[in-house]
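In this section we walk through a basic example: taking a raw amino acid sequence and producing a predicted 3D structure, encoded as discrete structure tokens. The instruction is simple. Fold the sequence below.
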Amino acid sequence: MVVDPHPVLMDPIAEGRRNWVAYGCGPVEQVTAATALTRAQQIATRRMAPVLATCDLTFAQLEVLIAVAGRDQLVGMGELGAALRLHPTTTARTVARLERARYVERVDDAEDRRVTRVRASARGLSVAQAALVRLGEIRYGLEGWDEAETRRFACLAALICDVGDTRDQEAFAAASALIRSAGVATTRIDHILRGSGLTFARYEVLLLLSWTRSGSMPLGRMRDRLLIHQAAVTNLVDRLEADGLVRRVPHARDRRTTLAEITSQGRKVVIPATRQIAAQLRLGISDEQAEEVFALVQKLRKSAGEIA
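The resulting token sequence is shown next.
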């Protein structure tokens, strides 16, 4: 069999959903929503990246800059991290990057030297405004949803990542909630899988291989099924191979093609891991709401030309 170099004309997420049900893995709604969220986050991030690059920003840095710019008074680092639900290390690193770009300034608290406060510079305010205008023109990467759908998704995603009111700056709030909720979904699955030594990404590789008749698949086809870059597939297979869960084997009829094949140890790991996810994964939304998330993400994927 010669591998088709072009993406297959099927929906990998919907196919994974069907396989999950067909193999009796358990309730499908929460895990489908988790997978859909990670894909939607990739689409929105990819769409916003060119705009953010012209402003020398990432979306995470823009969120911090806007949070600082929107305050009348200097913002404490701790207060800033709490408002954005960031780890203190992440907050410090992001502020340092913005400071190097001269978008923010750090000031020692006049009354408590242990406290550092942050304010936006004139340059930072100008860049933040320009970024918001340009991102607004592309609806923060959420083209494919109308205003009502954007609002509904923002509400659902806010339940997952436990953020506050999303009615202000709806498209920005929806994009922010999307990125955060995708992170929450991945983190929760990683937490469930930690006893097995897997991450969500490595688990998806094992699950995909376990669903094939031969237990193997060309690396290029894995890229299309998992909707990730080839380099990411290579890295995931490298790690799984080092752990003895997969092995690389040559293709029987095409020497240019390498297959990843699940090992017996890999099968022993993926079956209980699947049961754990089915039993434990909860995103903070009902199964009906999880189905809404899936349906909305499918519309976003259609607008990106990813599915018909």
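Looking at the output, two observations stand out. The longest strand covers residues 104-108. Residues 149 and 296 are 7 Å apart (CA to CA). In the next section we compare this with other chains.
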